[in-house]
Amino acid sequence: MRNIRGIAVAVGTLLAVVSCAPAIEVAYAPAPIKADPLCPVWGASTIAALPSLSDMRSAVWARYSRAVEESESDRTVYNRSPRLEWAYAARAACGAAYGYLSSGEVNSERLWNCECYSNRMESFARGPGISIRERLRRSPRGPPISALN
Fold this sequence. Notes:
Layout: H1 2-20, H2 53-72, H3 74-77, H4 83-102, H5 108-123, H6 132-138, H7 145-148
Helix pairs in contact: 2-4, 2-5, 4-5
């Protein structure tokens, strides 16, 4: 019985101490966002600011066509820069944006993605593009004999 009273007193004392402790609130201040020269501020698409739906559609289609061309080009596919990844991202984002615009809806997030990803794709210089045969020939181990026939 004494043990139970001792435990009850200890728990009560602990609860009193914890409940009387001042609550500390720390204000969260996010780090400032640096301006990105390739992408406008989130959601502020220059394509969405165009005056008509047909102008928006033609701007998005031009970016989509360029992304498709780059994603299928040997110069991009065999390059080591991230241009191919941004070409795939721009292709998907601009395709989605074009779909929204074709149905008459202006989705500023999709337009922003299209614009940002295509700008990033264009920011990487295109490489010289090497064929697989040339790559094998330049390999430090030398080409396999079957690749040269």
